[in-house]
Specification:
heterodimer, A: about 325 residues, alpha/beta, Rossmann fold, 6-stranded mixed β-sheet, two-stranded antiparallel ribbon, about 40% helix, B: about 700 residues, Immunoglobulin-like, 8-stranded mixed β-sheet, 5-stranded mixed β-sheet, 19 helices, 32 strands
Chain lengths: ~325, ~700
């Protein structure tokens, strides 16, 4: 567990130590400082200044985009809408359901997922790409539209930090929302434990794929969830439903692992079918490893310029 | 061995539990929150594959404790002796027949004897029967011992013969005292054999409302006794009774209370009175003096007044007519004899001078029905000789030597002397009369005035003031008094003090008599005692205490035991008691002797004292409660806890009876208590052993 993981990933920051840093921003910096230098440089930097349309000003709009000349002429406030602000728009979908609050280590899966999301947001902002955030449980809790502008990263970090514990997991709604709202093609990153029935997952991810989005799925799981190494029989309580079941781990372990494996394989198959990148993150793995793994795969995917799904090894054996 | 509640033996199945617990290794330890139960299946508590029992002794103890618990709950008992009872069904039965005055009503006694006959016919050879009659107390006609001593066929005949000899008397009923007495009689010789028998008390009574059942309220009925009340029912319901109220005198005449029972169909009654100069009660009824009609609604009473009573000293008989039952239609009254008490005043003064003590004293004594006062002043010289011997003396002037000697002797013989200590000399003489050395007595120096305090209200003389409203003596100013210093002799009792420390009224006991000394004068110069509200009551109280007339003469009720020495006083010899029926009886006079009043009417007493032959009479009336003839319900008896056989019980089948008997037997044997006790001991051993084994187990783990 923690000690093993830190020894096998010796040169990276130990997640147990990392999670002790309270501030998400500092945590992100600890992970990302040096990690990203020179890894990826966007060839399309700068943002579009191409004017697209006027829209009537409404409360809450950024006054920077007010067209003062029009206001002076007509005494009406209009907002100038631009064609695009950046070339890569990335939406981070972070699961904040109650199942994410499980953690056999000193931190929970939610901590890990938030840090992962924050790292990605930081990286994107560093490359002047637009990053957006959707925090969800069974409903969408918080939305920050993907933008690149000053303060966006801070806003995302704040939203991640303040996100309160939700209830059960339902992937349908957030994915529907993204499909409905994000018209521009971009990157959609789903960070969740995906411990929910996956009936709707394929359909919803399918919509996004069809809309031309590039899909990335991070499945965050606790090592205890993967291995089920409890030793004494006990009443197990479902964190989301509160249901209680008496389980003797000795006898239940085998069937548990088989069922989990089957569930993960289904997710993986779905991802591959849709050309999505699937990454399994056990929470005892250093974040850098998960990130670099993902970066590498994405680059490979881009370089191949192919949408033909690649055959991946099963979860947990990514290295 | 049988069981009262055999279904509890099903609890024996519980011994499977410790065995199961012995086998089960894994028990859930708390709750584990987990992200999802999607992939988990409920697994049953697991039993070790190794089915070996490790602690045989522990298991044995636990199982035994459970077996004992189950046994205790199923209430085991031994059946042998109980079987005998059920088979034989022999009974111990006390038959109680009411012979109180209310049973004189038409037809009741016949019904009662028929019921007794029926009960006696039912008697089985093994039964033990006792026949009793009761009114205010229980009287055996045929005791259990006599019954068992008689020949088998002869018992019933004897009982019937004895019953024929009795008939209802004139007494009141006291079921509250009689029933507990009957229980004692039934259980008295209850040996081992009879314990298991059904014990029953059969009461044959009219159960009229005046049966005094309140006494049953506190009685604890033994479990083994049942009471069967067999009612005799009167054909009539309208009964009224008559009683003389208060005392008869010229002023208020004769007052008679007429009481009607509930549910009475009659409301109009006729009351007649008659009196007899010769005291011969036989002729009284023929001399109707006055009569009145009175209207009394049911359950109410009215008082009728007869004003013109010609001679209050004669016996009076009051008769009532107009109701159904005649047994309580007469009441008698005899005016108690008035005793004459002489009061001797030994002091100066004229009867008509309000500045003299005599003026007040002469007027202070009020006659009561019990006594009249003859007031004599020594100065008048007309005091008869016997007054000197029997009177109450009030001394208000110093006596000469001869008088002192005579008085001292008289006090020793039982005289009471009151000394008004208006001077130091008088006070000293009081001590001399009482045969005591006089302490230092001097004129007290009073600033302003002194007040009486620390009055001994428990003393008979001060009894009339023993009430918060009357015990205030502060309005009696005393300006001058004599002060007694030094230790008082032993025979002195201080009845009141002046301002807390100087004696004001003291009682000096001497021989059979006593001297009461007031250390202050009663009027004018010394105090305002004669003018205070305390003077008259105190003087009358003194006389009553002296003459023994303070207590109102009691009203005699049939059934009372009349103490004859209250009439005869110090006389000796025999007293002839003549009952109203003319029956004569001679009783020796002694403080403990009494005449039992067995019938209503005038009882006459004749005896001889030193003054010659004396006679007196008292009226014995029926117990007024006996006239309340409306019947009580059985529910009222049951409410007092009397174990009447319930209707349900009467319908019990033999199986149910057997069950009842089993319950009784079990409650007597109480094996379950012992079983529980053993169980507790076993559990204690088990706890100790388990603790010991756990300790040993822990040690081995550490060692390993």
């Amino acid at each position: 567990m923690p000690s093993q993981s830190s020894s096998s990933f010796g040169r990276y920051a130990d997640p147990a130590v990392l999670m002790r840093i309270r501030s998400l921003e500092l945590r992100v910096k600890a992970v990302m400082e040096g990690f990203f230098s020179g890894l990826h440089r966007s060839p399309f930097h700068g943002f579009s200044v191409e004017f697209s349309a006027y829209r009537q000003y409404s409360d809450g709009d950024d006054p920077r985009y007010l067209d003062w000349k029009v206001a002076a002429r007509s005494d009406r406030y209009y907002i100038k809408l631009f064609e695009d602000e950046t070339n890569l728009r990335c939406n981070l979908l972070v699961d904040n359901s109650r199942s994410m609050s499980f953690g056999s280590l000193n931190y929970t899966k939610a901590d890990y997922a938030k840090t992962l999301a924050a790292c990605l947001a930081w990286a994107l902002t560093q490359q002047r790409d637009a990053a957006g955030l959707i925090v969800f449980d069974e409903d969408v809790q918080d939305i920050i539209p993907a933008r690149f502008r000053h303060g966006q990263l801070r806003q995302i970090l704040m939203a991640l930090e303040k996100a309160e514990q939700g209830s059960s997991t339902d992937l349908t709604k957030p994915l529907d929302r993204v499909a409905g709202q994000v018209r521009k093609r971009g990157l959609v990153v789903l960070i969740s434990d995906l411990l929910a029935p996956i009936d709707g997952l394929e359909r919803n991810l399918g919509y996004l794929a069809a809309a031309g989005h590039e899909l990335v799925v991070f499945q965050v799981l606790d090592p205890q969830e993967l291995n089920f190494e409890f030793d004494s029989p006990a009443l197990f309580q479902d964190l989301e439903t509160g249901k209680e079941v008496y389980v003797d781990p000795g006898s239940a372990r085998k069937s548990y692992q088989e069922r989990l494996q089957k569930h993960m394989e289904q997710i993986q198959t779905t991802c591959e079918k849709l050309g999505a990148i699937y990454e399994l993150c056990s929470t005892d793995r250093p974040l850098e490893v998960a990130l670099s793994e993902f970066m590498l795969r994405r680059q490979r995917l881009k370089a191949g310029a192919s949408r033909v799904p690649q055959r991946r090894s099963p979860a947990g054996r990514t290295s | 061995m049988s069981f009262l509640a055999p279904f509890y033996l099903a609890g024996l199945a519980a011994i499977g539990l410790p065995i199961l617990f012995h086998m089960i290794r894994r028990t859930p330890k708390g709750k584990v929150p987990f992200s999802t139960l999607m992939f988990l299946e409920a697994s049953p508590p697991k039993v070790t594959s190794r089915s070996k029992i490790e602690h045989w002794l522990l298991l044995l103890l636990r199982a035994t404790a459970l077996i004992l618990l189950a046994l205790a709950f199923s209430r085991p008992f031994m059946r042998q002796s109980e079987d005998q009872t059920v088979d034989a069904e022999s009974k111990r039965r006390a038959i109680l027949v009411d012979v109180s005055a209310s049973m004189r009503r038409d037809g009741l006694w016949e019904q009662a004897t028929q019921k007794v006959d029926a009960l006696l016919k039912d008697v089985k050879p093994d039964d033990s029967v006792g026949l009793f009659v009761f009114d205010q107390e229980l009287l055996p006609l045929l005791s259990f011992e006599e019954w068992s001593g008689l020949q088998a066929g002869h018992q019933v005949t004897v009982a019937q013969e004895r019953l024929k000899e009795v008939s209802p008397g004139w007494m009141g009923t006291n079921l509250g005292a009689v029933l507990p007495e009957a229980v004692t009689a039934v259980l008295d010789e209850a040996g081992e054999k009879t314990v298991t028998r059904a014990t029953e008390i059969v009461v044959i009574t009219d159960l009229q409302r005046g049966s005094r059942i309140e006494g049953l309220q506190t009685f604890e009925w033994p479990d083994s006794v049942t009471v069967d009340v067999q009612l005799v029912e009167a054909t009539t319901t309208g009964n009224a009774s008559v009683q003389v109220v208060g005392s008869v005198d010229k002023k208020s005449g004769l007052r008679v209370r007429v009481e009607n029972v509930a549910n009475s169909p009659h409301e109009l009654f006729n009351v007649q009175t008659a009196s007899d100069s010769a005291g011969d009660i036989a002729s009284v009824t023929e001399q109707v003096a006055m009569q009145q009609e009175v209207h009394v609604p049911p359950e109410q009473n009215r008082v009728v007044q007869f004003k013109d009573v010609s001679d209050v000293s004669r016996p009076v008989v009051v008769s009532l007519s107009g109701d159904d039952d005649s047994f309580d239609n007469q009441a008698w009254y005899v005016r108690p004899q008035t005793s004459r008490v002489p009061v001797l005043y030994r002091g100066d003064g004229e009867s008509s001078n309000p500045n003299e003590l005599r003026y007040y004293l002469e007027r202070a004594f009020l006659p009561t029905p019990a006594r009249a006062i003859d007031f004599y002043a020594e100065a008048d010289g007309d005091t008869p000789d016997e007054a000197w011997m029997t009177g109450l003396s009030v001394v208000a002037k110093p006596l000469d030597v001869e008088q002192l000697r005579m008085s001292s002797k008289a006090v020793e013989d039982g005289w009471t002397l009151i000394v008004v200590g208006a001077s130091v000399e008088l006070c000293e003489q009081a001590f001399k009369i009482a045969g005591a050395n006089s302490p230092d007595i001097s004129e007290a120096n009073v600033e302003g005035y002194a007040m009486l305090s620390d009055v001994d209200l428990e003393h008979p003389v001060f009894q009339p003031f023993n009430d918060v409203r009357l015990s205030d003596f502060t309005k009696l100013p005393i300006w001058k008094h004599r002060s007694i210093d030094g230790d008082l002799p032993e025979n002195v009792r201080v009845l009141a003090s002046l301002d807390g420390h100087r004696p004001a009224i003291i009682e000096l006991a001497h021989g059979n008599g006593r001297v009461l000394l007031f250390t202050f004068g009663w009027h004018d110069a010394d105090s305002q005692f004669v003018l205070s509200s305390k003077f008259v009551p105190l003087m009358n109280s003194l006389v009553d205490d002296f003459a023994g007339t303070s207590v109102e003469p009691p009203r005699a009720v049939v059934g009372d035991q009349f103490p004859i020495h209250t009439l005869a006083g110090s006389a000796t010899g025999d007293m002839l008691v003549t009952a109203p029926s003319g029956l004569e009886q001679s009783v020796e006079i002694s403080p403990s002797a009494f005449a039992v009043l067995t019938e209503p009417g005038i009882y006459r007493f004749a005896w001889t004292d030193r003054d010659g032959p004396r006679t007196s009479s008292i009226a014995a009336n029926l117990d007024p409660l006996e006239s309340r003839t409306d019947a009580l319900g059985l529910d009222e008896i049951r409410a007092l806890g009397v174990p009447l056989p319930d209707i349900v019980e009467a319908r019990l089948t033999s199986d149910e009876k057997r069950q009842l008997l089993a319950r009784e037997l079990e409650s007597r044997q109480r094996f379950w208590q012992w079983v529980i006790l053993i169980g507790i001991v076993l559990l204690m051993i088990e706890t100790w052993l388990a603790g010991h084994l756990a300790g040993a187990g822990a040690t081995t783990v550490v060692d390993a």
